[in-house]
């Protein structure tokens, strides 16, 4: 018999709960709210020995994560980067990459598995319903939320299950070390390489265009000449790395126009030598204004006054261009009297 055959007065009345959901279906409301099923306790809820076993399982997973992280660091340090091994079914692979992948994957997986097992076996799994409320909660609602939070914190048993808590904190503390170790692979450590160039006492100044040593008479007032240190050739395998630090520009200014005393003393008859590398992001400086003795970086318009120690007068550069002390040797050629006394190019975190 269908509901259409039953008199309307004999049909069960639809009942609404606090949410407006229909508890009993009828023709007008064919979809009833079944409500929540009866809560079923887990074995860990009623058997403390089972709960202890789950606790040890979670702690074991977190411990494995810590050991895997330590293995990651050990593999990074101990395995040569060019070592190749055969691993079935992958074939010949990089031993370092394989070891790093396995240990890091195991470390992350066991943290996740431990957290999931903890939640499924020890944390409270009883479903609760609550009536929706306005965005701006009433004071009593906020108080209830805090009570629920405290209750949830209590039911998580974080304070009670100290073994889980301590191993979890250990795993979470060690995992970031993997990222810290990987940062080492961003490039070789600079050590003191940024503080030294190929310039040294007695090294001849070579014209970049002609490849010949330079005499003072080769540099005329108002000109800008680019130079490199003696012995650095374009076919050298490290030419680009070295010229990026040692590139030099020479300018001749009337001595009476030079504002800084040290700048004058470090030159020779008004010939001044400065690093060509901009102190902003390392672009090569190439634009010279003869009347003002200013040089301009074409990348971001940083401007330096060569008559005043190459100080920054405009733009984003953070400090002056380093000056190279120069002189003339017994044969009349321009030479360096030392290396730059400060690092060339952009600032870096270790720079004094």
From TrEMBL:
It is found in: Cell membrane. Residues 16-30 have a biased composition (Basic and acidic residues). Residues 240-335 form the Rieske domain. PROSITE patterns: RIESKE. The keyword Iron applies. Keywords: 2Fe-2S, Cell membrane, Disulfide bond, Electron transport, Iron, Iron-sulfur, Membrane, Metal-binding, Oxidoreductase, Respiratory chain, Transmembrane, Transmembrane helix, Transport. Iron-sulfur subunit of the cytochrome bc1 complex, an essential component of the respiratory electron transport chain required for ATP synthesis. The bc1 complex catalyzes the oxidation of menaquinol and the reduction of cytochrome c in the respiratory chain. The bc1 complex operates through a Q-cycle mechanism that couples electron transfer to generation of the proton gradient that drives ATP synthesis. This is Cytochrome bc1 complex Rieske iron-sulfur subunit. It comes from Streptomyces thermospinosisporus.
């Amino acid at each position: 018999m269908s509901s259409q055959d039953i008199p309307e007065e004999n049909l069960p009345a639809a009942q609404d709960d606090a949410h407006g959901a229909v508890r009993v279906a009828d023709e007008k409301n064919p979809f009833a709210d079944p409500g929540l099923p009866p809560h079923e306790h887990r074995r860990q809820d009623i058997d403390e020995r089972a709960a202890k076993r789950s606790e040890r399982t979670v702690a074991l997973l977190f411990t494995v994560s810590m050991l895997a992280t330590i293995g990651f660091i050990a593999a990074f340090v101990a395995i040569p980067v060019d070592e190749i091994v055969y691993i079935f079914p992958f074939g010949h692979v990089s031993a370092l990459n394989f070891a790093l992948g396995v240990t890091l994957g195991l470390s992350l997986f066991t943290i996740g598995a431990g957290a999931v097992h903890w939640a499924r076996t020890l944390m409270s799994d009883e479903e609760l319903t609550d009536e929706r409320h306005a965005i701006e909660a009433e004071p009593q609602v906020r108080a209830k939320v805090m009570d629920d939070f405290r209750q949830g914190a209590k039911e998580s048993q974080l304070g009670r299950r100290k073994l889980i808590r301590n191993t979890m904190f250990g795993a979470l503390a060690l995992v970031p070390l993997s990222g810290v170790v990987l940062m080492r692979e961003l490039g070789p450590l600079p050590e003191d390489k940024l503080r030294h160039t190929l310039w040294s006492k007695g090294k001849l100044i070579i014209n970049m265009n002609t490849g010949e040593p330079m005499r003072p008479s080769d540099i005329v007032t108002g000109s800008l000449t680019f130079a490199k240190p003696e012995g650095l050739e374009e076919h050298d395998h490290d030419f680009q790395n070295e010229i990026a630090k040692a590139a030099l520009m020479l300018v001749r200014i009337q001595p009476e126009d030079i504002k800084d005393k040290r700048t004058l003393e470090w030159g020779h008859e008004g010939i001044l030598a400065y690093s060509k590398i901009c102190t902003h992001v390392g672009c090569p400086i190439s634009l010279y204004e003869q009347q003002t003795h200013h040089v301009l970086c074409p990348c971001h318009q940083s401007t330096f006054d060569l008559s005043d120690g190459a100080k920054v007068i405009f733009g984003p550069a953070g400090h002056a261009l380093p000056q190279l002390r120069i002189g003339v040797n017994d044969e009349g050629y321009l030479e360096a009297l030392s290396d730059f006394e400060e690092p060339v190019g952009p600032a870096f975190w270790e720079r004094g």
